[in-house]
Prior knowledge:
about 100 residues, alpha+beta, Alpha-Beta Plaits, 7-stranded antiparallel β-sheet
Amino acid sequence: MDDYVILTVTGRPGEADAALKARLTAFWTHVLRTRPDDYEGVYAEATRFGRAADAPSRQYFVSPDALDAILAELGAAGIDHEPPDRDDLYSKYEASSPDWFQIDH
């Protein structure tokens, strides 16, 4: 069974959800084109934005094997994230509808 870490990506203080969504779309397009094997490690995306202080946030189920590469790409893109808890693992069955969207690879 595959296990996943929850990665919470955060926007800038005061940033609108739509602005973070646009930045994330560009980010994931870049990852898909340049690191397809690591993109395969992203299993699901939360269907709704959350809030982290005064900023929008979005959560992802990421395989531990792909996590370091995704974190490096986020840093290079200037996208913030909360520190992931690598010991808190979830099965793919916990990423269910309507709260999660499974990414089609």
